[in-house]
Fold this sequence. Notes:
The protein is α+β, with helices and mostly antiparallel strands. It contains five helices and eleven strands; from the N terminus they run βββαββαβαββαββαβ. The strands form three sheets. Strands 2-3-6-4-5 form a five-stranded antiparallel β-sheet, with helices on both faces. Strands 9-10-8-11 form a four-stranded antiparallel β-sheet, covered by helices on one side. It is rod-shaped.
Amino acid sequence: MNRTECDTYRVVAGMARAEVRKKGSRFIAEVFPVENEEEAETAIETVRRREHAATHHCMAYRLGLEGDLFRYSDGGEPPGTAGLPILHQIESRGLTNTLVVVTRYFGGVKLGRGGLARAYAEAAALALEQASVVRRKVWVLFRLRFAYADTAPVMRLLERTGARIRQTHYDTATELLVEVPRSQGRAFKEAFAEVLAGRGQCYQNG
């Protein structure tokens, strides 16, 4: 995925399913939205139990804002004929937090390495085409502390940058926890210091 600081990333909004038949073999592809490895492994195990009579269960998933964490498995098929073709379908759509499991019921006729790779890729592609895709916003959190008299310029800054207030706390000063679009994080911190002429505090939270 793009290594620049983008404000959005693409995920599937729900599950989807498609089936491809090749020379008697059935390739059933299922798409799952997943947030972490535990969710992915749970979904994979669910498919394995439900389709326990199948010959192979092959899968791939990508996780994280940049899709840096990924796994794939050929599920007993010849190396490189299942997991990678499935993963490439996820990658080609710029998706992350996405799992695809392709279950094969062998039909008695061998497809060869090329035929297998095409069948797994086609099944994964069809299922992904059925899935709704959404863009999620990427935010960074900043904790602000400033005098009550500086509230007006801070509020104008939040409005101008599209920042959103998550928490508010008042004691001897005003404290805000705000979320800012990721690409504007550095500029927001600099703008806060500028509009308050160095008064107040602004630091990234987490």
